[in-house]
Amino acid sequence: MARFAFTTREIGDFHVGGDPVDLEHRRRGVFDAPWTWLRQVHGARVVTVTEPGEHAGAEADAAVTAVPGAVLAIHTADCVPVMLHDRRAEVLGAAHVGWRGLLGGVLEATVDAMARLGATDIRATAGPHIRARCYEFGAAELDEVAARYGDDVRAQTAWGTPALDLLAGIRAALGGRSVDDFGGCTACEPGRYWSHRARGDAGRHAAAGELGAFLGWEDVA
Ligand SMILES: [Zn+2]
Prior knowledge:
- The chain has 221 residues and is of the alpha/beta class.
- It has one domain (2-129, 181-211): CNF1/YfiH-like putative cysteine hydrolases.
- The chain is built from 6 helices and 14 strands.
- It has helices at 20-30, 99-104, 106-116, 139-149, 166-173, 196-199; strands spanning 2-6, 35-36, 38-39, 46-49, 58-59, 62-65, 71-76, 80-86, 91-97, 123-126, 154-156, 162-164, 179-181, 205-211.
- The strands form 4 sheets. A 6-stranded mixed beta sheet has the order 4-6-9-8-10-13.
- It starts with a strand and ends in a 10-residue tail after the last strand.
- The site of zinc ion has 6 residues, from loops.
């Protein structure tokens, strides 16, 4: 089994660079174990976590693990936090997916890294992000994304300009695997979410997950 959490503003700001003690306290309030968080750069590098907290602060945009109790975390404002899980092999993944990372192949790289840990049947959950109706997007970049992931990524904003449907791109990149939508738009729900793009907010939400809780060693002495 795996547990996921997608935080809202009321849980607090997970932006890295403020008071580290406060941040650690906030993290432990969500999952009380060392977090593998990443210095996200809109790339496609994936780290494989072999003990809780390994690779914390690494420059990467995704993490995978088969270790129970290792927390994998992604920080976002408008990009999509995607949590992936294979319940048979018990392999977990977490990816930070904006349009650059999507085009860079971060999801395909995450699936490959999970497969190396034995995953064969991956399901994904996409967290809160900027929705197509709020995500005005340049025509040239939209053509680029559509060329790779199909015309389903083409959408319109509420005000009638070209828009990118990131979730459609994620579904295409995951090639028919099940993708649950957690819901929520960071741009038009200012009471619940921060948006870098819509309001220039510096705050970040956390998406975090862990495989079935580690229950401790049995004392046989
Ligand atoms: Zn919106």
